Amino acid sequence: MSKKENEENLMQKIVSLSKRRGFVFPACEIYGGLANAYSYGPYGASLKNNIKQLWWKKFVQSRADIVGIDGPILLHPKLWEASGHTTSFDDAMVDCKKCKKRFRADHLVKELIGEDMEGDLEGMSKALEDDKMKCSECGASDWTEARNLNMMFETKMNGINEKMYLRPETAGAIFVDFKNVMDSMRMKIPFGIAQIGKAFRNEIVARNFIFRLREFEQMEIEYFIDPEMKWEPLFEKWLDLQEEFVLELGAEKKNLRRFEHSKEKLSHYSKKTVDIEYKFPFGFSELFGLAHRSDFDLKQHAKFSGKELVCQDQKNNRKFVPHVLEPTFGLDRSILVALCSAYEEEKMKDGSERVVMKFPKKLAPIKVAVFPLLKNKPELVEKAREIFVKLSDQYMCEFDDNGNIGKRYRRQDEIGTPYCLTVDFDSLEDNSVTVRDRDSMKQKRVDVGKLEKFLEENLK
Ligand code: GAP
């Protein structure tokens, strides 16, 4: 099998395991599905929550200089005028005139001539015509002109006459709360405001499973700094922290790289933008981003709202508009990294194969599975239930009395459960259980009274 086939195969395996084992389902399947939309099943929702918690702990809970908010999805329509989203949050599209299928023009041109022509509508139209790009759907080579399409989802709100939008990024909600946070929390520069939440973009083509969605979640920080400070070392530090977070998702360093946007492609207000790219099964693609956005956002919001958005430097009797560094993290892409990094196929001594999701233990959707050896022995079931109830107080646990123990282990391996506990007849005598480790598959006896301590030490 070629490398490309292998990679496509891996993606298919992850998509299929995600559905079979309750991580990610195609959305609205009973109605025939909704194109490229997904819902997170029980284990996917648990994995997602664990990633959010990991992020919140790292960037909010353990930092005195960053506070978190939870702003609305529906924001004042003026905000999107101020940020430039209503006029320039566009992607270029082309349609195949024969089969009417729609494509991202810049993606087609990149595939065709390897050049990034994003923003150059004329150039893209010419490249598609000159180089006779064939439509992947029908094989024709007859394209419309490339034209821009705004990616914001429009909606209506009772009592408001203007067009409303579902927010296309969480950042907007942070900027409008800048003054309230500063006043109520007595924050001193440098400081950050963090937020996790939904964002919506009417992508021309959603694709690659949960990589490019129309409804997705972001974890963003706006980090406000003094415009006079030397920002470069802090920028580097943020990139390091972002990479550190990817490693905590289970990724290997060799699968990460940085991509700095060229000066010509930068927005006029940005001093520097770097993407953290991850090697997904479909190739290196943007995972997270870090941008120096200067004072653009606060100045624009001050201009459009008529409110002063500044910091006071009491010591030097100075008033200034802070600059901002914006580390942004895609949550759905983080989940995809965790799924891709965890997936392993292992050959067993008896020639069989096991699929095991080797999530970092902190991220595992279920931490402990509890089994009675036999389901028709009430004394075993009762003891296993007692242990399940006790441990569930602290951990996501699962009780399973279906099928033979080997099959139950395989199921938990595919979910990525670090520990399986089995209550057998000896347990009734010596009050201990068999603890089986997901990665080494080694088993040992642990006293029931010492289980909590064992898990506390081993699930860190
Ligand atoms: N506030 C800055 C901002 O929104 P962005 O590069 O457009 O920057 C940030 O988006 C992150 O959000 C990306 O790095 C990616 O992880 C995630 N993201 C963007 N569009 C996405 C989509 N259509 N589906 C899933 N995740 C997406």
Strand order of the largest sheet: 3-9-10-16-13-12-11
Mean model confidence by pLDDT? 95
CA-atom Rg in angstroms: 26 Å
Shape: globular
**Biggest sheet layout:** 7 strands, mixed
Number of DSSP-assigned strands: 23
Name the poorly predicted regions. none
Structural class: alpha+beta
Helix proportion range: 25-40%
Q: Report how far apart the termini are.
A: 39 Å
Strand content: 25-35%
| Count of helical regions | 15
Say which molecules are bound, naming each kind only once: glycyl-adenosine-5'-phosphate
Task: Provide a brief overview of the structure.
The protein is of the alpha+beta class. The chain has helices spanning 3-20, 42-61, 77-83, 85-88, 105-113, 121-130, 171-176, 178-185, 232-248, 296-305, 331-342, 378-392, 405-415, 425-430, 451-458, and strands at residues 24-26, 38-40, 66-69, 90-95, 102-104, 147-150, 153-157, 160-166, 191-200, 215-225, 256-260, 272-280, 283-292, 311-313, 318-320, 323-330, 343-347, 353-357, 368-372, 397-399, 419-423, 432-437, 443-447. A hairpin with a 2-residue loop joins strand 12 and strand 13.
List keywords for this structure.
460 residues, alpha+beta, seven-stranded mixed beta sheet, five-stranded mixed beta sheet, 28% strand, globular, binds glycyl-adenosine-5'-phosphate
Can you characterise this structure?
The protein is an alpha+beta fold and 460 residues long. Helices cover 35% and strands 28% of the residues. It contains 15 helices and 23 strands. The strands form seven sheets. A seven-stranded mixed beta sheet has the order 3-9-10-16-13-12-11, sandwiched between helices. A five-stranded mixed beta sheet has the order 20-19-21-22-23, with helices on both faces. The two termini are 39 Å apart. Residues 169, 171, 201, 203, 212-213, 216, 218, 220, 286-289, 326, 328, 330, 332-333 line the site of glycyl-adenosine-5'-phosphate.
